[in-house]
Design brief:
Layout lengths: L1 H26 L13 H7 L6 E5 L5 H8 L3 E6 L2 H14 L4 E4 L14 E7 L9 H14 E12 L15 H8 L3 E11 L2 E10 L1
Parallel strand pairs: 1-2, 1-4, 2-3, 4-5
Antiparallel strand pairs: 5-7, 6-7
Length: 210
């Protein structure tokens, strides 16, 4: 019975992952609300006065944050599993006359060798919080970030905090305690900044790699 239950859990996890991917992919058929075209103020503030390096954006969308970084001298890479988002990102970089490594795929299933790390900065602005119940994917994600982040590098994570009253997507979001458990011992937490996004509680986490 335990094996059957584990199998059902894997199937359920896979279905949630596929539905999440479909939802994000369909969003790019129009103008998704998360694609503001404005680089994250927290990223702008963090990068101000820092020497450029190599940056990776997990769930890069149409490349807004990467364009900002590239314009101030960073070498940039991005991953998104929505093909249309990557197509638009590539178009934006061509128009800007800038270069980026842009990959269509699921970060949790990409071999780290497919990305040109190590990275001085890894940014996740709303990717990890979409699949907290998928234990296998979370484990692969954490291992991927750990393997790609340079020693002394920074991991900037933005995520919604779950609202148990949300009947539409009760598994959406991650708590500060959850983040601490998943990344504790692997990274050093430097700061947590709380906020709100369209009525949802949210947080920015700043980690460094030892």
């Amino acid at each position: 019975m335990a094996a059957d239950s584990a199998g059902m859990d894997r199937v359920s996890s896979l279905m949630r992952s596929l539905l999440t991917q479909l939802n994000f992919s369909m969003g790019y058929l129009s103008a998704p609300p998360w694609d503001t075209g404005i680089p994250a103020p927290e990223l702008v503030r963090w990068s101000s006065g820092r020497a450029p390096g190599q940056a990776l954006d997990i769930g890069c969308g149409t490349g807004t944050n990467l364009l900002y970084l590239a314009r101030i001298g960073w070498t940039v890479s991005g991953v998104d599993y929505a093909p249309l988002a990557i197509i638009r990102a590539r178009r934006r970089f061509r128009r800007a006359g800038l270069i980026a490594e842009l990959i269509t795929g699921d970060f949790t299933r990409l071999p780290t060798s497919s990305l040109r790390g190590p990275f001085n900065l890894i940014l996740d602005m709303g990717c990890l919080h979409a699949f907290p119940a998928d234990r296998d994917a979370v484990s692969r994600y954490v291992a991927g970030v750990r393997g790609l982040l340079a020693r002394g590098g920074t991991f900037l994570l933005y995520a919604h905090i779950p609202d148990e009253r949300d009947a539409v997507s009760p598994l959406h979001g991650i708590t500060p305690d959850w983040v601490g458990r998943e990344f504790g011992g692997r990274f050093s937490l430097q700061a947590v900044e709380y906020g709100e996004d369209h009525g949802r509680r949210s947080a920015w986490y700043t980690f460094t790699a030892g």
